[in-house]
Structure formats: C-alpha cells, structure tokens
Amino acid sequence: MLAAERYKLIRKKLEENGAVSNEELIKAFQMSDETVRRDLIKMEKSGFCTRVHGGAVRNGEFVQSSIISYRSGKNEQLKIELAKKAVKFVREGDIISIDSGSTTAAFSEELKENFSNLTIVTYSLSVFEILKKRFKVILCGGLYDDNENAFYGSVAISEMLSLHTQKAFLAPSAISIKAGIRDYQGDLILVQKAMYDNSDKVFFLADSSKFERNALYKIADIKREHVFISDNSLSSDIKKIYSDNGIKIY
What we know:
With 250 residues, the chain is α/β, with parallel strands linked by helices. The protein folds into 2 domains: 3-58, Arc Repressor Mutant, subunit A (Orthogonal Bundle); 68-244, Rossmann fold. Helices cover 39% and strands 22% of the residues. It has 10 helices and 14 strands. The strands form 4 sheets. It has a 6-stranded parallel beta sheet with strand order 6-5-4-9-12-14, with helices on both faces. A 3-stranded antiparallel beta sheet has the order 1-3-2. A hairpin with a 3-residue loop joins β10 (174-176) and β11 (180-183).
C-alpha cells in the first residue's frame, strides 16, 4: 500500500475514533512497527495528531462555552448511562463533593434514587436543588453564575478549601491524554481545582464526546490514580490507548 493511501486511512480512523493504536495499524496494513512509527511521525508533523505510547491521538478540537440549559439536552442518554456506572463507586455514608454541570445533575438524580445517607459538598445550585431534601448538603456560595447555575469567586473557593471529602466527582468539558483534564469556564476553574485538591479520591465523569478534546483552562494532568467513567459509545481505540498508558476508563 502506498504511503499516501495509508495516511488517508490513518486520518480517517483518527477522525472517526479519536485515536489509533500501533497494534491496529500493524494488523490492518500488514506492515512493520517501524513503518507505522514513521507514518505517525509524518502525520504528527502535519499537525493532525499527537503520538503517545501505543499509538496516536487526534489533536482535539476546542470545546466552546455553552450555558447549562443548552448542555442539559445534549447526549442525555449517555450521561444517564455513565451516571448509573458512577454511583457504583459511592458507598452509603460517604462524604463526597460534586461538580456543576448537566452530567453531575444526572449523577445527582441517580444518587437520590440509590442512597439515603450521604454528605454532599457542592457549589452547584442545580445539584443542591436535586439533593437538598434527601441528604445533608453543604452549598459553597459566593458570586453567582447564571449561565452555569453555580457559585464562584473567593468565597466559594475558600469554603471549598475548608472542606475535605472522601471522593470528588468532577465533570470536565474536555479530556486529553496530552493536554490533561480541562474546562472552559474561567470563573469556575479555581473552584473545581479546590474540589480536586481537597479530596482523597477523584472521579471524572465524561461522556464519550469529551475524550480527546481540548479547552482553555487546565484542571489537572491525567494521572494513573484517577478514575474515568464514561458510556459504552467510547471507541475501543481510545480505551486501548488509555489502557496502554496505564489509565483505566470504566
């Protein structure tokens, strides 16, 4: 197979799946590991992808800002699916913190259905309204962001930093094996970081559309101890690349 034809097929796989593994390309094209390496170096230089251990990932598109009422109607079933998985990591009596957003709203509905004794820390008014009659809920107030229905600023950050939780459930807008865990809300990012820093274990809830995307602000680098929870639509290529890099996606 000519190199130009291989580049075209590799590009197609990256566009469709967000990632491609060396193993898959070797099998698909019946070529050596060295040829695959050279092809991916060539494509990386073109700016289309980034090589990682085990293969390559597409250079992620930037996620644009949108209000929570708009996001609530997008990928709704995927969010419900991953929320049902996420509650399996919660135990009765846990003290947990919950991020803002439409994904954590779906997660909160599942918590309400499955538990009776939890302590919740959040800066999201949406999460507070869902859970306030079911559990002990601590709402970190401050300046109010109407687009996100959440609080931010020095008061919210200070309150979040004063509270230590066993588990934090964050819902970033973008996850990239190279760029890290990211979001686009500049006002809220420091509250998310405070939540991240003050928890024993961090869980990231992200539907399959969020992987190998990018956003302006970084919450954290990806670490092997992080737990990622997604839906069943996540491509096998993404799962393989992340697994090759020691990162588990449930």
